[in-house]
Write a structure and sequence with these properties.
The structure holds 2 protein chains of 2 kinds. By secondary structure, chain A is mainly α. Chain A contains 11 helices and 2 strands. A two-stranded antiparallel ribbon of chain A has the order 1-2. In chain A, helix 1 packs parallel to helix 5, helix 5 crosses helix 6 and helix 9 crosses helix 10. The model of chain A has no long low-confidence stretch (mean pLDDT 86). In chain B, helix 1 runs antiparallel to helix 7 and helix 4 packs antiparallel against helix 10. By secondary structure, chain B is mainly alpha-helical. The radius of gyration of chain B is 19 Å and the shape is globular. The interface between A and B is large, with 47 and 43 residues.
Amino acid sequence: MQFWIIQGLNSLSLGGLLFLLSSGFSLIFGLMRLANLTHGAFFMLGTYFAAVAMRSYTGLNIWVTALGAGLVVAAIGGLFERLVLTRLRTNPLGQVLVTLGMSFIISDACLVLWGGDSIPVPTPPNLQAPTRLFGFVFPTYRLVLVACAVAAAAALYLLMERTRLGAMIRAGVDDRQMARAVGIPVSNLFTIVFCLGAGIAGAGGVLGGPILSAYPGLDADMLPLALIVVILGGIGSLMGAFVGSFIIGFVYTFGTALFPELAYIILFLPMIFVIAFRPQGLFGRVSA
Amino acid sequence: MKWIASALFAAFLLSLPFFAGDFYINLASQILIAAIFALSLNLLVGFGGMTSLGHASYLGVAAYFSALLTSRYGFGHGAAALTSIAGTIAMAALFGTIALRATGLGFLMITLALSQVLWGLAYRMSNVTNGDNGIAGLTRPAPFGISLDSAGAFYWFALIVASFAFLMMAIFVSSSFGSSLKGVRDQPRRMAALGFNPWMIRWITFIYAGFWGGVSGLLFVYYNKYIHPTSLSITSSAEALLGVIAGGTGTLGGPVVGATLVLLLKNYASAYIERWNMLLGLVFLFIVLVMPTGIVPGLSKLATRFRK
C-alpha cells in the first residue's frame, strides 16, 4: 500500500513539474504557431541556476531562487524572441530550426560552465521532514510541489480568462489577423507570451531541482515529455496541458517503477491512442 | 560542357583510392553515407514538405538491428542486412501511420517524440542494446568473398551503394509519383479534389525515405564497426536536417553538398575544439538567418544571372 501511495505522490509531483514545463510550451505554440524546442533548455537553465545559486549561498530560499531564475530565463527568452525570432515571422520552419539551434547552444554552454557531473539541488530545510497523514508518510517537498503546480495553473487560468492581457492573448490565438485589425499589438503579445512561457519553465526547473538535480542532458530528457504532454492534451490548451501532464506523470512514474525496461514504450502509448482517435488532442480545438 | 564535367567528377570519385591517403578515403566514405542519409531525408523535407526531426530513427534502428543480429544471434551479414531493412521498413510504416495523422509542426513534434523514445530505449534497455557502452567488435560484410576491411575497398562499396541510391531517388522524384508528391506538398486540397490520396502518397514516401535511411544505417554500422545511442539522438537527426537545409531542400545535389559540408565541418572542427554541439547550433542560426534557401539554389540563381 505504501508503494502505491508513494508512487502516486511521485506521479503527481512529476505531473506538476511537467505542467510548469508544458503550459508555457502550449501557450507559445497556441499564440505564435511556434514549436519552441528551446523549452527543455530553458527548464535546464533554471535547474542549473538553482544548483549554482543555492550552493554558493547556503540557506538561500528556494522560492526566491525560483523567482530569480524565472526572471533571468524570461529575459533570455525575451532577448532571443526579439533579436532572432521576430526576423523569421514568415518562415515557420526556420523558427523551429532556430529554436533547435538555440537549445544546442544553451545545453553545450551549460556543459562548458558547469561540467559533466550532476549537481544536486538541496531540498529546503523546513520541508525536509516527512509529513504524516492518515498513517502514511509523505515526502513534504513533493506535496508542496503539487500545490505549487496547482496554484500556477489557477494563476494562469485567471490570467487568461479574467484579465485584459488574457483576453488579448485569446483573441490572438483565435484569429491573429482580426486581433491586429482591432488594434491589439500582436507582436508585443508574442514577446510577452514567450517571456512568460520561458519564465515558467525556468522557475519550474528550479522547483524540479531537488527531485531531478542538474545534469547535462536534462533538457533532452524533459523536452520529449513536454512534447508528448502537449500532443496528448491538445496544442495551445491550458486545460490540455494540465490534464496531459498528470496523465504522463502517472504513466511515466508507474511505468518506470513496474516495468523499468519498457517505460519509454509505455510512455508513448497514451499519445498514440490520442493521435489515432482524436488527432487534435484531448482538449485541443484545432488539429496540429 | 556539362557532360565533360560530370565525366571528370565520376573519374575523380572512382580513382580517389589510388591517389588519396587512408584518412581522406575514410572521410570520403563517411561523406557518401551522410549523403545517402541526407538524400533520404530530403525526400520528406524537400519533395514532400514533411519536416521530420526524427530521421535518425531509421539509420539507428537498421544499424542496431544489424549489430544485434550479427553479434548476438549469429546471423550472416546477408540475412542480417535483409532482416534489418525489413524491420526498418516495418517501423517506418508504423511511425508513418502515427506521424501522418498530423502535418506541419504537429508532424515535426511527433517524429521528434518518437525518435526520442527510441533513443531512450537504446540507452535504458541495456540488457539488449548494451546502453551507453554501445555495441562494439562488429565486422564488415564480405560480398562475393571480397573483404571490405581496407579503406579503399569499403569506399568503392559505399560508392556503388551511394550511386545506386542517388539514381533510385532521382528516378523516384522525377517519376509521375514524384510529381504527385510535389503536388501534394504544394496544393494538398487540389490534389485531393483531383482524386489523388494525399495521405497515401505521403505514407509511401515516408516508407521509401525510411528504407534509404535504413540503407545508410547499414553502411554506417559497417563503416564504424560500432554503434552507440548517440546515432539515434536528436543531434544526429538535426545534423542531417542541417545538411538538407544548408544544401537546399527539394534539389538532388543540395543535400549531397550540405551533408558534405556538415561532415567536413564536424571533422575539422572537432580537431580544434570540443564544442561540436555549440558550433552546430550556431551554424543552424547562421544558415536560417543568412541563407534560408540553401547553398545550391543560391549558387544556381547566381549562375543563371551570369549567363544572362
